[in-house]
Amino acid sequence: MDMYFSKEHEWVKISGTTDTVGISEHAAHELGDITFVELPTVGKSVKQFDTVAAIESVKAASDIYSPLTGKVTSINETLENTPEVVNESAEEAGWICTLEITDPSEVKKLMSRSEYDEYLKTL
Amino acid sequence: MSYCPNTPAEQQEMLAAIGVKSIDDLFAPIPQQLRARSFDLPAGMSEFEMLAKMTALAGSNAQGLVHFIGGGAYDHLIPTAVDHLANRAEFYTAYTPYQPECSQGTLQALFEYQTAICRLTGMEVSNASLYDGGTALAEAALMTLRITGRNRLVVDGGVNPFHRQILETYLEDIDVEIVTIAPRDAACDRAALLGAINDRTAGVLLQTPNFFGTIEELTEIAAAAHAAGALLVASTYPVALGMLAAPATMGADIAVGDGQSLGNPLSFGGPAFGYIATTKKYIRNLPGRIIGETVDREGRRGFVLTLQAREQHIKRHKATSNICSNQSLCALRGLIFLSLLGKEGLAEMARLNRNKAEYAKGLLTKIAGVSLVGSGPTFNEFALRLPKPAAPIVETLLQKGIAAGVPLGEYYPGMENCLVVTVTEKRSREEINLLAKELEVAL
Amino acid sequence: MKLIYEQSVAGRRGTQLPACDVPNAAPLAAALCRSESSALPEMSELDVVRHFTRLSRRNYSVDTNFYPLGSCTMKYNSKGLEAAADLMAPYHPMTPLLPGGEALAQGCLGMLHGLGSLLSEITGMDEVTTQPLAGAHGEMTGMLLVAAYHRAKGNRKKYVIVPDSSHGTNPASAAMVGYEIITIPTAPYGDMDMEAFRAALNDETAAVMMTCPNTLGLFNPHVKEICDLAHGVDALVYYDGANLNAIMGKVRPGDVGFDVIHVNLHKTFGTPHGSGGPGSGPVGVKSSLVPFLPNPRIVRKGDGSFAIDRDNPRSIGRTANFFGNFGVMAKAYAYIIQQGKEGLIRVSEQAVLNANYIMSQLKAYYDLPYDQTCMHECVFSASRQLKHDVHAIDIAKYLIDQGYHPPTVYFPLIVKEAIMIEPTETESKATLDAFIETMIEAAKLAESNPEILKAAPVTMPISRLDETKAAREQNVCCIG
Predict the structure, then answer these.
(1) Could you report the per-residue pLDDT of B386-412, keeping only the tens digit for each?
(2) Distance between C450 CA and the closest CA of chain B, angstroms
(3) I need a labelling partner for B320 at 20 to 30 A (CA). Which of B341, C344, C384, C418 fits?
(4) Which residues pair with B372 in a beta bridge?
(5) Contact residues, B window 371-410, toward C, CB-based 8 Å cutoff
(6) Element (H, E) at B98
(7) If interface means Cβ-Cβ distance under 8 Å, which residues of chain A face chain C?
(8) Angle CA(C158)–CA(B178)–CA(C292) in degrees, nearest 5?
(9) pTM for the full model?
(10) Cβ within 8 Å, pair B3-C75
């Protein structure tokens, strides 16, 4: 499975048919204790870098931009009642939604894990 | 009169510490061409002279008018303890409770206020108050648009005309259709209202008692709204809630209203507060400040501003509203008022209002040519039809020190002979008798 | 402390109402009535008085503590203003709207008109509406006026430009009126990056919103250029008056080129903050926007009397029930006439002196992101203290233990660990010196004993509330 990151700290895991989207550990840490995740509706279509979801913590609110163009095929409903899962495991159990993507070549505009780690150092 | 305490000597010390010669040096960053072209204000004065001027100003208003008028502001009794407590400097010279450890007075009081509003309206959650009843209605309308994603509102014409104007102003630049249903016989034209609700409707907005004083039953309308996927917003008069069914029990999704009647003086229209309350599932869509309960690091109960991520200082242009403040001190007055009157006191005040209004209704409708506009039940206001235009009659009675009612011709075409009479617990039997006598004379 | 509901005992009663002097009315239909009275508290008057008196003692307030909240102008609220407002309390707002009623409300109408004239002169604007009920409400009203102006001219405008240092109410107000926001970053000189501004400004810009001095307490030397550039594309310039306390008598936004402004009576004009409201945000405009002002307006007739003018077809309509927060305005009017011309000039001069004094004494201990003469407030950063894992919030909590209400922290958003200090002109050198000493102590403790700061506050009834728990559980009322 390949994992890619965006400049806005979202990640996407490409795995053949289902591609999963979430926010990075860094982003979750920056936000602080997450209090709410506004999940997208299943079936929603998004272009790369369009807003697909939103996330709130006690002191901040952030839009989540889709790393790739596609259609939302499922959402992580556990986040409705336990948004803190994003803080506990932003890159695994805290996934936000899955996408059916249309153009795999769009990953050119994203970063690999090592590129993202380098990018974080510049911030 | 200067409240700047520092003596010239102290100012010199401070300037030296800063490293400049004069105060003018501190304004050096401001280019000369930007300096004020004029600052032509009168000379200042002492506190005593100021109060003499304000006394003279107040004196040039008519004194002791007997109020049988409402229109959104009501002449109610206010227990002395409300002033006494709200005037405590720790309440009125404090600010927004951003630092909860030194603001528990404000925070707990506002939590108690939120609770009082929930208990009065039957709703599950309330915010810490909005500016007034009219803007509260507009905020509720915006809520229905956000929640449903639709862009059509159905508004009953019996909603206070000023509130409807505020709503139109708020929505002027947003793509929303407002359908107003003309009232019939001082009440909601149910058939027309129900007929206007469709699957593009975000919210249905009603007021009860309405501008004519008629009490509206909302259950049927709530059901119709819900069947179409819309929300019902009910604007209610809080003193009436001492007697009338709570909006939540009738099926309303959002309850709003004006809190001036609860412990806030008339004060020529402000300040007072607006309330907004709703069901738990819509809490994230509530505008304004909300106080929540929590514990501190030792497990002790405390209160904080919460769900701030909805608000402008975090979400900026995506906030639920631009509102920054609430009407804290006015909401506090409302809470103290409700605490002093209490469960049975508010019910008794409501009864007093209705008894006096019904008494007035009986006397006034005995006058030849005077009749009720509608036949529906009323609380403390009712609409009368006179045998001639109401405006000149009201003017005549005003000259005698009686504000007899609000003539309706200006707000509802075709109702030039009608007026709304308001009777609160402050109106004595003698005053009501006098109103009837003078009205008869004038007609 | 118990909630009032937790002290309620069935059958207790606070206020006794007058006896009913008319017959009982026939009851309403049961379907319209409550089956049971709402569960409001049942307490004796004494218990209510004790409860709220005790609650009040849990607050810090200007009358009890130095309260240097930046951006809020927590100046002393003189008691004469309260008496002035009380004189105006019994008047009904419908009176002048009744036929023949204007003559009976000349005092109230005259005061509103007089306040409008005074504010026009202070700010250099042509006319003022007193209707907006708070600063943010004034901003929204201002944006509605901007939209009406463009609509009348047939302009197609989409955007409003704000600096990234702006108060959140600026973009929120513009968004409420349907505009899209363009945010301009702050340049090293302390305000909008002019190159970025010029690039963003185009024919579709409806307005530019600015605070001057800005939220860093700095006066923007390019402010006139910004106004001129905006006017060049028929964009209007909005002045957020939150920081007016710095420039009274020195600069008038109207002279600089601003088209529409709001002032905060509860900041600059000495009316009390009331624990978070009520405020009042009158809006001033240049003549180009006068036709769109909210209804009704108060005008002075030829014979000198005051009247209501509701015949304005191009008005944006109504933004409040009646004439605005009249009681707050009575206090502001009283304040302005008491201060007079020299008084207001002195207010701004002393406010700027006090802020610069604090800045000069603390810059050795706290990072100063913009090291230049400030106006009425200064912004420090706790970034030096962060090296010891001490945050701005820890310094704030320590100040509480020392009897101070903390300065504003974490605003403006563009400064990391921001601490914004606005002393106001009503504080003495003695108070400022004691505060400076405490701030220096805090800086030293950050290095030597940071755990003291992190444990603060220890002298208050509660300490470091769990805000996450509050947001997740959403317990906002006591379930009865």
Answers:
(1) 999 999 999 999 999 999 999 999 999
(2) 18
(3) C418
(4) B384
(5) 377, 391-392, 394-395, 398-399, 403, 406-407
(6) none
(7) 32-33, 35-36, 56-59, 83-84
(8) 50
(9) 0.95
(10) yes
